[in-house]
Amino acid sequence: MSCEALFFTAPWCNPCRQAAPIFSEVMREANLPSTIVDVDLTPDLADRFGVERLPTLVIVSDGVLRGSLTGSRPKAEVRSFVDSALGEVDPPVLPTVAD
């Protein structure tokens, strides 16, 4: 399963500038591939994921939207959102049988 985070932003968006370092840090800690998406350059992608406000963080798994979070948020809240979205796509851990 392929998961990725998309961070929808724009150069003129002050809350986006505040949220960008938190987004980058959480993605690095979660070891989650991520892309920063400038909505002015790719409005069709923003439309595809229903982005109406900035900044918006979207978690996608195999092309399917797993969750989105809008606004500049504290790191703990962003991390909790990411963990929750990733938990929905991770396969269950099956017990192993000892030889």
Automatic annotation (TrEMBL):
Report the leader peptide range. none
Family annotation (PANTHER family): GEO12009P1 (PTHR45663:SF11)
Q: Which Gene3D superfamilies match?
A: Glutaredoxin (3.40.30.10)
SUPFAM superfamilies, sorted? Thioredoxin-like
Q: Which PROSITE patterns match?
A: THIOREDOXIN_2
The family annotation for this protein states:
Belongs to the thioredoxin family.
Instruction: List the taxonomic lineage.
Output: Bacteria, Bacillati, Actinomycetota, Actinomycetes, Actinomycetales
Protein name as annotated: Thioredoxin family protein
Q: What Pfam families does its record include?
A: Thioredoxin
Where does the record place the Thioredoxin domain? 1-87
Keyword terms, alphabetized: Redox-active center
Q: Which InterPro entries match?
A: Thioredoxin-like_sf, Thioredoxin_domain
